[in-house]
Structure prediction request, 673 residues.
Amino acid sequence: MMSPAPQAGHIINAMSHLEQVVSKLPHFIFWKDRNSVYWGCNKNFADVAGLSSPAQIIGKTDFDLPWTREEAEFYREHDRRVMDSGKPEYEIIESQKQADGREAWLITNKIPLLDDDGNIIGILGTFEDITQHKDQADELQRFRMKLTKVIKELEVSNKQLVQASQTKSQFLANMSHEIRTPMNGVIGMTSILFDTPLTDEQRSFVEIIRTSGESLLTIINDILDFSKIEAGKLELEEHPFDLDTCISEAMNLVAPAASAKNLELLYEIEQGLPLCIQSDITRLRQILVNLLSNAVKFTETGEILITVSGEKLENNLYCYQFAVKDTGIGIPTDRLDSLFDAFSQVDASTTRKYGGTGLGLAICNQLARLLGGGLYVESELGKGSTFSFTIVVHASESSLSIDREALSGKRILIVDDNKTNLKILSSTLQSWEMEPIPVSSGQEALELIEGGEPFDAALFDYKMPEMDGLTLAESLPQYKDAGTLPLIMLSSIGDRQAGSSDLISHWLIKPVKSIDLYRTLASLFGTRHTPFPSHHANVTEENKKDLSALRILLAEDNVINQKVALKMLERLECRVDVAANGMEVLNAIQHVKYDVILMDVIMPEMDGIEATRKLRSKSKRYQPYIIALTASAMESDRKECLDAGMDAYISKPVRMDELVKVLHHCIENKGPK
Ligand code: ADP
Prediction:
């Protein structure tokens, strides 16, 4: 069916609908003839042009409307361009002064109007007011520019900060060098003074000068270490070492302070954990010594326990967790967060009462991170603290070869008032398939013996309340069989002098390394195996002979390494001074003619190689025996040491047996001058 033809009435109706639609559109719409004279517009446009109705626009040009002259000219120019080209233009952004005086931003479209023959007869324009968007865009642009400026300023200040931090580290390094040089002079002089006739009072003054000088050097070294880490300049070394030795050496350094306070020092390594690990022993020991020193410092009674556990990550890569647990004063919960910040102490009274700089934990935290882990703390006020840290290490499966046959089933009586120590000793013996019988007092031990319990050997703690280890040992001969029981006494450094007895077959110094305990038990029960290579030569009177006459200079930059080496040399009764780098060595030999220089190869400011070359090229008359301390096992490094003029080398970590051997070699070859 066809639709009916449109009638005139319908057309008029349609036109008025169209007009309504156009007038309702949110856009601004206008149309002009070929000369840019307005033909019509919608209501919105009439409003911005300040006209009361769209009809009033007819016959007007842009010059009759409230826009500025420049704007009117711009619009006419734009109209002409569109009409001349016949091409519509869309999204032209223009500004326009409105009837209400407001400056508006418009986005305009202009389309040429054509008659039936295709001739251009005018133009149709529409626009939208984007003033609000434009303002936002301008705001955004301004913000962007501001941001760019701030970023640039930040970059500049960051550069300045990095520079300042480097300058600071350099300044600290220089300053500590400047302080250390005269300090070493002072300390070096004290060792010369000790050789002169002194009254007791003078001797004690000299000792105070020496210990004060040394504690000042420790603080300076802490500051230097910290700034080195901050500046990213700390280089790690990685070499295999024995974990057992590392821990017991760290413990030995704090043992005198712990023993003076009657604190038990204990450690336990998870059974089966590889003991030969590869990491930076110097830095690991530094963390342990720092945490142990704090534990001793902040604990009055009880015990300090190191535990080591581990988790295999992949192949021979492990994550080891070390925990240092004390029964000391503890730390308030609200202070735990800031504890690892540099120069932070729990409160101001800490410095007055305990001393310290507040740098130790900050250094431990940074070192643990460098070693692949982190530092953590748990603490309860009045009960104690546990500082733990993790490190990632390469580990070789334990080379321990226990002669289980010889030890298996042997019944060992353990007497110790310290429960933790009883637990550690028992589990160690159990891991060797022995049968430990732990009791916590001499009285209990005697009851068992009286009851006729058979034992193959006994382990006594020396220091126990009521009945000490020696009294217990002395009362054994009254009992049948017990009189011939092999006895092992566990004592702290210094206890040995307190009592001695033929009844004791072995004295072991606490904390006891499991290897030493194994060796002792193995010697009792006749095993042929030696499970670990020996790290400690027994210091016999024979060993000490001659060595005590040597005057030694130890050149080593790391304080903990210094202490460990000093401890060994002390056991050999040698006289030792310390230098922290090559420059200090050259300085020191001007005051004192040392027989031997133990020279670390890698040191800041001037390394051992350069110092040796300089020293060898200097005096023809005085030439000390120089022993390189090489962290690297590479043959080429050793050759470099010898080429530079050193006489011998030992590898780090320094071992007593090697040290004794090389010092004897020095005496045989050159003899103390
Ligand atoms: P320092 O001991 O030289 O002041 P540290 O960084 O080693 O610096 O320690 C910071 C502070 O943390 C100490 O001053 C002390 O207040 C607290 N602290 C550290 N270790 C312990 C601990 N084992 N028990 C109680 N407080 C501790």
Notes: Residues 131-194 form the longest helix (64 residues).
